[in-house]
Amino acid sequence: MTRVAAIAGLEHDDAALAACLLAVDPSGLGGASVRSANGPAVAAFLKRLQSLLPAGAPFRRVPPYIADGRLLGGLDLAATLQAGRPVLERGLLADADGGCAVLPMAERLPLAMVARLCSVIDGKEVVVERDGFACRNASRIAFIALDEGTSDDERPPGALLDRLAIHLNLGAAHDGDDRDVPFDVEQIASARAGLPQVTADVERVRAVCYAAAAIGIASVRAPMFAMRVACVHAALSRRNCVEDEDAIVATRLVLAPRATVLPPPADRSPEQSSDQDRDQKPDSRAADSPDLQSADDQSTAVSHGELEDIVLEATRAAIPAHVLAQLQSRGASCRSTTETGRAGAQSQSARRGRPVGTRRGELKAGARLNIVETLRSAAPWQGLRRQQSGNGRVHVRRDDFRITRFKHRSVSATIFVVDASGSAAFHRLAEAKGAVELLLADCYVRRDQVALIAFRGNSADLILPPTRSLARAKRSLSALPGGGGTPVAAALDAAGILAIGLRRKGLAPTIVLLTDGRANVARDGKAGREQAEVDALASARRLRAAGIAALVVDISPRPHQAAGRLADDMGARYLPLPNADAKILSRAVQTIAPLENNAAR
Amino acid sequence: MRPFYPFSAIVGQDEMKLALLVAATDPTIGGVLVFGDRGTGKSTAVRALAALLPQMKTVVGCRYHCDPGANGAMCAECHERAEQGRLKTQLVPVPVVDLPLGATEDRVVGALDLERALSQGVKAFEPGLLARANRGFLYIDECNLLEDHLVDLLLDVAASGENVVEREGLSVRHPARFVLIGTGNPEEGELRPQLLDRFGLSVEVKTPSDLEMRVEVVKRRDLFERDPTGFMQTWETADGELRRKMVHAKNRLSAVEIPDAARKRAAQLCMSLGTDGLRGELTLIRAARALAALDRKARVDDTHLRRVASLALRHRLRRDPLDETGSTIRVERATAELFGP
Q1: H or E stretch including B289?
Q2: pLDDT tens-digit readout, B299-324
Q3: Residue B136: its pLDDT value, please?
Q4: Most CB contacts within 10 A, which of A251, A474, A589, B94?
Q5: Under a CB-based contact definition with an 8 Å cutoff, are residues B258 and B47 in contact?
Q6: How far apart are CA A184 and CA B17, in angstroms?
Q7: CB-side neighbour CA atoms (13 Å) of A242
Q8: CA B271 to CA A547: how far, in whole Å?
Q9: pLDDT score for A301
Q10: What CA dihedral angle connects A543, A544, A547 and A549, to 10 degrees?
Q11: Residues A118, B142: C-beta atoms closer than 8 Å
């Protein structure tokens, strides 16, 4: 183990090393995700990477809300009109072929854009099927996703992270400018030439796969990338086959940041675990009793040799502190927050929905030109314009542009606010959960989003951020504990903030409050029925003022006036539900949910 | 042509491979939906299938790859050509068309030919992706993220087998029979039940949990990336064998006998599972027949039904959110009850 400690313990400047690796094989590694606040550390990393790439290699920045035409390529309208024949605009991704594309604010990338990027990473080419063009352009790029998220929930979408080999975490304070680059430009160029000759023996592949399985990495891309990184590192070190050192660097940069469970300690054999499916019972996985992914791993784990131990130990040592803390505090449950996409945050644009006619307009980003209407509006002027200009082309001016208008059904979002306090939990929490699940199924049919806030003790927590994934919603619901006080005011405030935020994104929020209405914790977190009720009613009135559609479901076995008054002050519909009949509940939600908002754009 | 990872070289994922082969053998089954974790070889398998398919006969010069043998299902231009008695034919690879998420509606259904409209002022139709996919496969990666209006459009065309374009002053109709292949990750949002039901078969893929298998995956991928051509040659024999099997199965498909007992079994299974509509039974029977043809058997029997039951039915069960049991397990249970252990 001493050798491992020596290697893993060395204060490598991983960022500099990663830059060298990426410069050797930009598209083979897919790229890197760099988590850090925007600052000198990131700038230094990017500058260094650019300096190591071959001379003249493109280095592009992709704005987060870039139009499809610019990203993938499409019709260059200005040039088309000037030339009188369609002119294809090469997209940014095709332009960046052979170099790097930087994705700032990757944690906020729209999912649709992520899907486009992923298909480019997978195919190493851009396929354009737009505006009457069909073509393919090579696009071998290393994507550098700058992840400026501050909390654990704010991460780039999993589909993208999975396709980027290296995951770095640069501290905010550290700036790497004064450190030496481990390899210079000539070494990198010769490594690039030597890379195809590097081979890895099966023992090391096995060791890497073993380490990946032991820290709960499901995707097979991770060990593939690790082997690729190992080969690149070997090439940099002028070796023709992968040595332990290369494998260890690879696990540190590729595998360790992806850990979802703590690996078993190396000095004793892995504990026996029951053969449960990770996906079905994530909660059963406590942080201090790590177990492997499945029973199959157990059988192979018995036969692992020394090399596996070394690599696993190195991986273990390299798991970044923040990942480790997350694993220890939450066990495997962090998987649900780190790997899921943000299906909830879908913004609308001027090109979604069904077309409903045209209007005169500017060709701003996202606007779709209606060619026929444009030509039609230009037609009457052709004689005049030809006389003026003296040539026989079709003359189209800016005034002629006609933009297609779209009608878009605004997606509704249902926010469930579930009372998980002692009084409610005792009677009805399980039934309320069942009802919510039925409603979820309903929302899922209508493609609506759901969010879940639970309140108990002295606070209200957002258990489920707005999502369309039923699987995810069910998982977070089943893990919901019960007991404690009833902080109605805090719950309504949290729901209100969420609802207003959703409305700002263009969704139509509805609040469904399931409670017995008996508030006993005030807004400041102190117990006391009197103040609690005053606060709750004040919060309720605030929701009414904000004009948010709401439903109060009284889940106490004997309906009580407290919940009714709450509903009155919220301007909400009141539904006493002594028998948890999910069908009635579902119907009630549908009646208050805002009807199809057809916002013509 | 870009080198493809050979189909036979895919490690494990037997169910996905079976589903793709069955759906390719009988296009009327209605395609495959592959749902599962990232990095499990979904896209690899679909692209590999493209290279595996035998070539098909088409009319020379037809933009929709019309089948010279099928009189009823030809485009207007081919009808004219046939009447004038000159149908030249050629062999082309079966099209596997990618529908990128960013595709615009005009590229999907076809639109006015911009070049000719702008330069000559001629109103001409330029076929879209649906035309290119006729008689082949339409592949949608991350189909759960596809915009709703595109989904509606695809469903309509897939159901009718014909693409009707009424836009920009054009009025065109052409055949568009294709097999839908969709992939997706359930963590990122689910599919509407209407779309779910349109897929003939569905597969849930999981990462191989066996260490040796994962090692093999990594090893083969590495070999492929180092020397794609050499790697493809290594597997050419195995792929060729599969291709022959599929050609044989396609030819024999209509000759495979479906005994009444098998139909009854299929109906019983669907009834015990309470699937909506008859599409489940139809698909189950068709899939079993395609499998029997692939196995070079003369008639469908229980083993075939059993092997495709999960594929054909698991996405058609009524969802009961309160029931934690997965659909696969429910189908397996019902199958075991009916057929015995």
Answers
A1: helix B279-294
A2: 898 889 888 888 888 888 766 544 54
A3: 86
A4: A251
A5: no
A6: 46
A7: 27
A8: 48
A9: 40
A10: 80
A11: yes
Contacts of B84 (CB under 8 A, 6+ apart): none
Positions of chain A with pLDDT lower than 70, given as ranges = 1-12, 77-78, 81, 84, 112, 129-134, 151-153, 171-180, 263-305, 319-367, 392, 406-410, 423-433, 435-436, 439-440, 442-447, 470, 578-601
Task: Tokens 């449950």: give the residue.
Answer: A333
- Which of B13, B17, B331 has the alpha carbon at shortest distance from B181? B17
Q: Measured between beta carbons, which residues in chain A are less than 8 angstroms from residue B182?
A: none
Query: What are the angstrom distances between the C-alpha of B290 and each of A279, B19, B161, B254?
Result: 33, 10, 21, 9
Residue A348: what pLDDT? Answer: 37
- Quick one: DSSP state of residue A56? T
Q: How is residue A119 written in tokens?
A: 């298909």
Chain B partners of A370 at a C-beta cutoff of 8 Å? 168
**Number of neighbours of residue B278 by Cβ within 10 angstroms:** 10
Q: Going edge to edge, which strands form the sheet with B179-184?
A: B96-98, B137-140, B179-184, B32-36, B201-205
Q: What is the pLDDT of residues A70-91, one digit of tens each?
A: 888 877 766 776 776 777 888 8
Antiparallel, parallel or unpaired: β A125-130 and A449-456: unpaired
Which of B209, B318, B324 has the most A C-beta neighbours within 10 Å, making it the best mutation to test the interface with A?
A: B209
Say which of B243, B263, B279, B299 is annotated catalytic: B279
DSSP conformational letter for A100: E
User: What is d(CA A141, CA A160) in angstroms, rounded to the nearest whole number?
Assistant: 14
Q: Which two tokens stand for residue B159?
A: 């159901």
Task: List Cα–Cα distances, A389 to A84, A106, B118, B129, in angstroms.
Answer: 14, 48, 18, 39
Beta carbons within 8 Å of A176's beta carbon, 6+ residues apart: A13, A15, A16, A41, A44, A45, A48, A170
Model pLDDT for residues B229-284, shown as the tens digit of each residue = 889 888 889 989 999 998 899 888 888 888 998 888 888 888 888 777 788 888 99
Among A64, A601, A131, A90, residue whose Cα is nearest residue A351: A601
CB B4 within 8 A of CB B51: yes
Centroid of chain to Cα A427:
37
Euclidean distance between CA atoms A253 and A31, whole angstroms = 12
Determine the pLDDT at residue B291.
93
Contact residues, chain A, for B40 at CB < 8 Å: 219-220
Could you please report the per-residue DSSP string of A442-455?
Answer: HHHHTT-EEEEEEE
Helix (H, G, I), strand (E, B), or coil: what is residue B10? coil
Paired tokens of B140: 């949608």
Which residues on neighbouring strands pair with residue A90, listed in sequence order? A73
Relative to beta strand A508-515, strand A459-467 is unpaired
Which residue stretches of A251-391 are H helix?
295-301, 306-318, 321-330, 334-339, 371-378, 382-389
Cβ distance B214 to A159 less than 8 Å, yes or no, reads no
Q: What is the residue type of A417?
A: V
* A309 and A203 Cβ atoms separated by less than 8 Å: no
DSSP state of A254: I
Instruction: Please answer whether residues B238 and B6 qualify as being in contact, where contact means their C-beta atoms are separated by less than 8 angstroms.
Output: yes
Q: Give the model confidence (pLDDT) of A13-28 as tens digits.
A: 778 888 889 999 888 8
* Alpha carbon separation from B107 to A94, A114, A153, A224, B130 (Å, rounded): 20, 21, 37, 35, 9
Identify the DSSP state of B257.
B
Mutation target among A224, A229, A297, A408 for the B interface, most CBs of B within 10 A: A224
* Percent composition of chain B: helix, strand, coil (DSSP 3-state, to 5): 50, 15, 35
Three-state secondary structure call for residue A207: helix
Is residue A384 classed as helix, strand or coil in its secondary structure? helix
